Amino acid sequence: MTIQPRSLSVEITKNVQIDYLISHPEGYEDSTHEWGLIIFLHGMDKRGEDVSQLSSYGLLEIVNEGKLSLPFIVAVPQCPSESYWNMERDAVTALVDELITIHRVDPRRIYLIGYSLGGYGVWDLAIHNPRTFAAIVPLSSGGQISKAEQLKNTAIWAFHGANDEIVPLEQMTNMVTAVEQHQGNVNLTIYPDLGHDILRTTLSNQELYTWLLEQKK
């Protein structure tokens, strides 16, 4: 897989720009097949204006290692310094639209994965775009309980460490419970011996990607 830097500039109500990295799966260039798309949202310490720092972090680190089967287009945007993913909602939504247009993305198989700050962003984006994402994977985070009904038709697999001292487990369990109350399709994995940093443990699990492939809008 080749990781390529890109920058997206779109005009919505104001100028919106977001830098991102993109990786195509093995076989992409040799087929006309449409692929699932994963948008990965990073944590707070990766905010900034140097998108290259994401090339060996999180999901792209897993892609680089090549040990797992990841038949997806993977896009990793960078949240600017002093910003948060809910403030970049329009930019990420525009990025998804552009990727569908210029790459061979199956619009029924668009997925969100996010860790910590990115996990909050995953909940937020899915709530505000309930028809876009076939599945979301929030890690070490919580969401807007009052808007959980918006997620009743989105498959969710959430992950959290029981010993998380940065984001209390209660934030995740409360959000999961709220989705369940609206008969949503949600699963929660709690790591009994882990704290906040569950990123590599979660992303190294082939079962996660097998599950994603089963989810379609």
Automatic annotation (TrEMBL):
Any Pfam family hit: DLH
Superkingdom of source: Bacteria
InterPro entries found in the cross-reference section: AB_hydrolase_fold, Dienelactn_hydro, Plant_Biomass_Hydrol_Est
Domain Dienelactone hydrolase residues, every copy: 92-197
Presence of the UniProt keyword RNA-binding in the record: no
Gene3D superfamilies, per the entry: alpha/beta hydrolase
UniProt keywords, alphabetically: Signal
Matches recorded under PANTHER family: BLL1128 PROTEIN, UNNAMED PRODUCT-RELATED
Name of this protein: Prolyl oligopeptidase family serine peptidase
Biological source species: Paenibacillus planticolens
Lineage: Bacteria, Bacillati, Bacillota, Bacilli, Bacillales
